[in-house]
Each structure stands twice: as structure tokens, then as C-alpha cells.
Hints:
- Chain B: Keywords: 4Fe-4S, Iron, Iron-sulfur, Metal-binding.
- Chain B: One of its GO terms (molecular function) is 4 iron, 4 sulfur cluster binding.
- Chain B: This is Ferredoxin family protein.
- Chain B: Residues 5-34, 42-71 form the 4Fe-4S ferredoxin-type domain.
- Chain B: InterPro entries: 4Fe4S_Fe-S-bd, 4Fe4S_Fe_S_CS, Fe-S_Ferredoxin.
- The structure holds three protein chains of three kinds.
- By secondary structure, chain A is α/β, with parallel strands linked by helices.
- Chain A has two domains: 3-234, Thiamin diphosphate (ThDP)-binding fold, Pyr/PP domains (Rossmann fold); 240-367, Rossmann fold (3-Layer(aba) Sandwich), CATH 3.40.50.
- Chain A has helices at residues 8-18, 33-45, 56-67, 79-84, 86-95, 121-125, 143-160, 170-174, 214-234, 254-269, 287-293, 310-318, 337-348, 358-367, and strands at 3-7, 23-26, 49-52, 73-77, 99-105, 136-138, 163-169, 176-180, 206-207, 238-241, 248-251, 274-279, 281-283, 299-304, 324-328.
- In chain A, the strands form three sheets. A seven-stranded mixed sheet of chain A has the order 3-2-4-5-7-6-13, sandwiched between helices. In chain A, strands 10-12-11-14-15 form a five-stranded mixed sheet, sandwiched between helices. A two-stranded antiparallel ribbon of chain A has the order 1-8.
- In chain A, β6, α7 (143-160) and β7 form a beta-alpha-beta unit.
- The N and C termini of chain A lie far apart (56 Å).
- By secondary structure, chain B is an alpha+beta fold.
- Chain B is built from two helices and four strands.
- Chain B is elongated.
- Chain B starts with a strand and ends in an 8-residue tail after the last strand.
- By secondary structure, chain C is an alpha/beta fold.
- In chain C, strands 3-2-4-5-7-6-8 form a seven-stranded mixed sheet, with helices on both faces.
- Chain C has helices at 32-45, 80-90, 102-108, 110-118, 159-162, 168-172, 189-207, 222-225, 229-243, 253-256; strands spanning 5-13, 52-56, 71-74, 95-101, 124-129, 178-185, 212-218, 247-251.
- Chain C has ten helices and eight strands.
- Chain C has one domain (32-256): 3-Layer(aba) Sandwich (Rossmann fold), CATH 3.40.50.
- In chain C, 58% of the residues are buried.
- The N and C termini of chain C lie far apart (39 Å).
- At the B-C interface, α1, α2 and β4 of B face β1, α1, α7 and α9 of C.
Amino acid sequence: MARELLKGNEAIAEAAIRAGLQAYFGYPITPQTELLEWMSHRMPELGRAFVQAESELGAINMVYGAACTGARVMTSSSSPGISLMMEGLSYIAATEVPVVLVDVMRGGPGLGNIAPAQSDYNQIVHGGGHGDYHTLVLAPATIQEAIDLTVLAFDLAEKYRSIAVVLLDGSLGQMMEPAELPPMRPVRQTFPAWAATGAVGRERNVLTSIYLDPPKEEEANLRLLRRWQEIQSHEVRFREYFMEDARFVVVGFGSAGRVALSAVRQARAEGIPVGLLRPISLSPFPTRQIAALCERAEAFLVVEMNAGQMLEDVRLAVNGKRPVEFYGRLGGVMPFPDEILGEIRRLAAGEASLEGHPRDRWLQRLTGSN
Amino acid sequence: MPVQGRVVISELYCKGCELCVGACPQKVLRLSTERITSKGYHPAELAGDGCTGCGICAVVCPEAAITVYRQAVRRPTAAVGA
Amino acid sequence: MVVEQIVPEEIVYQRPRSLVECATHYCPGCTHGVAHRIIAEVIDEMGLREHTIGVASVGCSVFAYNYFDFDWVQAPHGRAPAMATGVKRVLPDRLVITYQGDGDMASIGMTEVVHAAARGENITVFFINNANYGMTGGQMAPTTLPGQKTTSSPHGRDVELAGYPIRASELLATLEGAAYIVRRSLHDPKNIRLAKKAVRTALEVQRQGLGFSMVEMLSICPTNWGMSPNQALQWLAEKMIPYYPVGDYKVSASVAQIKV
């Protein structure tokens, strides 16, 4: 198929459709509304299910119902709407039905604004809904990646009977780039054996998240945990740039990683031996890869559009062996390459420290307070 | 001949709620004072004759514990030797 | 000479196939059991057991899925109509029902049921109204009557502080997407039979794709009302029916043509 100029939100919607999406339930919220609108005309056109729900709460529960039939189903929202979905996500995780969720992050907390941010990292990667569960989280940095990861999300969700989240920020949702959509996959015609579809000629299936007896609940939790371990072994994804001889490592995901790449290129032109590790799967996190880099890296710089959330996962991976510095912008402000270049130069000049917390040092520098 | 009925009330399900006792038009149901179900309820039972198999007890029973039988009376449509 | 024949015993009534052979956890005399029974009878009579998917809610009936022998999914509190929407939109030829109580449908889930009805979703909601929150021990519900004592309105519902009960059937009947909205009662055999007919009509409405249907069933809660089951029937008749009259609140033109 040919490359076309595509808008992020619409590309993700169409990619899901090409992947055999059977049902979409959503609600308008900036900056992802175009995804809903695309679905509102394409899904009925193809004879597939579409409902604009009464709220994100309604939407995630419609998704939950459809997922219980084994259908390929998804919803999308942005930060405040995602918060409304947390109840549903916990239930979906506990019932072990596959669901794809797209979160196009915006400034917060609260109603915040409609500018791009990455501040849902903790909510999405470290839970959000109550209880012990993990979701697969994929973070694209380009529209092509958003397309490819959306298709992958459905396959992973089904393979592991899990929630797979495509996590991006408003700028990627809104921007337009040349990208290629995959060919149309046919919608599946069969149901998984576990699904609630009408008990024709079989014992009934009951899909519930209730385990009233604590030992049974523990057993259910252990099952989720073992599945998570399997996911951790097989589904880590990341990309490395200029890493072969890098002595300094920048870690950034999504748009922050993309901006950091520009800074890394400029730094290389100045002769600084710096590279970028861009996690693509935030969950499972490339912990081992980062830990292994401690052998040859002198210092790490984490760049995020939040107050340091992935920062903590990087620090855990580095485990005190090397200094980790932080640079973040908040509230919908996007960092520019020259800001990150300035940070890389500081690292190269030996200003990285093992003392204290990188967030405190960054805050002092950002706000000029001393 | 009066229609004769019979009910069998399952001890697996009956909770001794007495809704059938109150609803029976013939007033022929009562809670047993001698039997106790495995859950500790006194189950309902027929108290003597008079059940017509009307099925009203089964209509009000919340546990679907009652099976209702009736001896039917049929009049053939053609008279014999009339 | 007319000869009367006495034929051997025939079965007038037996337990419906769609009920699992399992004792329920409901209190003695709780009319959840009657509602379950008549729904099971109707599904058997329509031959739809294998094509039904139930959406269980949260309340005393949270384990409804243990009692009916067909596929079930479990919804978070209040969300059953939204889950049912998801199921029905993907599997439109299945019978999709929800089974909800006062708190689930009329409190936390009010938004979901209003919008499912407004959208005219081809699902059937069974709403069990017993004027309190049963599962959690008898608190005030949106359906609790003025002056009615509950564990969270210990001096009786004070309309100054807690407002007035919601009449859900009347409210939902204002929506054009709602095709069949009726209130029935389970307090005596005649009303139970009428309730069963309403259940049958509602499921026919769904089978024929005529829109959203709901059967509200006034029910007793002897344990939380603090009375015996037979006393509770009287309380329902005397106190609840005047506030929640039995009747047909919405019967669309196409539904009016149905004969059951």
C-alpha cells in the first residue's frame, strides 16, 4: 500500500479497522476526538459496531461487554476520560478478556488543558485501576509506529487475554505525517471457547471478576502474575540510536524520545558520545537492557513530558550504579531539542551526580530557585 | 369427581418462607414441625387432603421448590352408546 | 352415556430447565426467587436458553449467574446496560438481558440505563424494586419511600434532607427509544402471572427488534424491612403500590401489535 499523509488519530483508527476491529465505543475528548469521528463514519460503512457512549464510563463498559464475546474491540480517550475508565479496566483485567485502549495524553492533573503531555505514565504503566494487574503498554513516536503498534496491540491483547494500551500524546494524535496503512484483514468469524456468546450445545460460560473465597482470589491473581512474567520475557520492545559507542545515554519515550533524538544528533555533531534508548514497550519495561548499559555508560539522562515518572523505572533499572539526571516539561509544554542538548552537554561536562534525587536538581534548574 | 392434586416440595430448595402456606386457596399447606432441611429450615408440606393441584403455591414459591401433580378428569368428546 | 375417564397424574408445574439445580442464597421469602423463576419459565417457553446472554449486576442478585443455566457476564455496579449494549451490538441475534436492583439501576447506574433506553438498545432490563439496598444491609435507596426507616435513614426518609423517591418506569417512559416500559408486582398470584406475561412481552419486543424494554417488579425484602415474608407482601401492597402504581408506562405502536 502507498504512503499517504495521515493524521495521527485517524491513522490509529484506520489501523485498528484494518486489524479487524469489530466494535468501537468511545466518547469525544480533545485531543483524540478525530479517532471517534473517523470510527463514526467508517464502522457503520463496514457494517461493524459503533456507539458514541454517554460518557467514558459507559464506553469502557460497552467495551467490556463486547470483549466478553471475544470480539476485537477498542476504545480511546485522553487523560481525564482515562481516569473515568479505571474501574472498567480493573474489571476487564480481572475477567481476562482482550481489550485495546488508546490514551492520547494531555496536560493535567484535573481538567488541565488540551496540550500534549506524558503525565499518564504512572496511571497506565503502574496500574490505575484497583488491584494487582498489569497492562501491556506500547508508546509510538511516529505515526507509522502508531499504526504498527495499534495492529500489534490487538494481537498481543488476544494472545495474552490482556489489556494492551497504545500510549501517545496529543501532538502525535494531531500531527500529520506520511505513513503506510496495512491491508484490510478480514473480521474474525469464530468465537474463542471461553466467550459468552450463547451456550449452544455446551456448558454455560460465566465471565466474572468475583472470587469470593480468598484462596481462589489468590489463585486468580497468581495466574495473572504468571502471565505477566511470560509477557515480560517475550514482549519487551525498544529502539536504540547511536548506542554502539555511547558513553552517555538519553532515555525518552514517545514524542519526548523523538525530540531527544534531534538533540542526540546535534550532540553527536559536536562530538559528544551520546546515544538514545527509546522504550517502545513501557510495560514490560526494558529494565534489563538499561541495567546492561551500566557497563559502558557513564551517566543517564531521562527526558519526559511529566514530573519524572518513567524516571523512577530507569532509576530502578540503574539501581544506583550510575548517575541518572532528569529533564522534564509539564502541563502541555513541549521540550525543544536545544533544551535537551543543553542537558546532554552538562552530562558530558561531568555534572551528573549520584547524590540526592535528579528531580530536585532539575526543579532547581528549571525554576531558577536555589 | 373432585380433581385431586398433589405437591412435592423439595427439601433442597424450600426455605420455610410460608408464602405458599399463605397463598394456598385450599389452605392445605403448612410448615412441617418435625422435619428440618439441611439448611435448618422447616420445609412446607401438605397437611392432609384437599389439594386440587391448582398450582398457585408454585406460582408464589421463590425457590421453584414445588412440583405440582394433578389427576385430570377427561370427558371424551363422543358419547358411548348414546 | 358419557363416561368420565380418570387419567393418571399429570405434571401441572415443575422447576424450569433454565434454572440451575442449585439452592439460592436469597433470604427466605425474597421475591428475587419469583422473578428468577418467571424469567426462566419464559425463556424456556420461548426456547431461547441457548441464545441468551445475561448481564449480572451488583446487589443481592450479584450471583444470578449461578442460578440461570445460560451464558452470563458480570458488570460493575450500575454498568449492566452499558455492558449489555456492548454484547448486543456485537451479537444482535442473541437475547441480552440485565437483572438489576434499586441501587444498581436507579442510583449508580441511572446514567447507563437512561442512555441505553434513549438509544433504543434492543436489550431487556429487569428492574427489581424493593425500596432499599438489600445486599449491603438495608440502606436507603432512591426508591425508599418518604418516612421509611432504613439503616441510613434511621428516623425515616426525610424529604427535606433526602428528597423524594424516583419512579424509574415513569422516567424512562419519557424516552422515545423506550418501546416497552411496565411496572408489575410480585406480591400475589394474580400479579405474578401478570408479571410473567410482561416478561414474555418484553422478550418478544427484543426478539422482534422493537427497541428497549424494561419490566420493573415490585418486590419484598422481609429481612431488611424487619418482617415475615407474608407480612412483607402486605406492606408492599399497602405502602409501595400507591407510590409505584402497577401499569404500562410505555407501549410503542409496534409493541401494541404483539400478541403473547
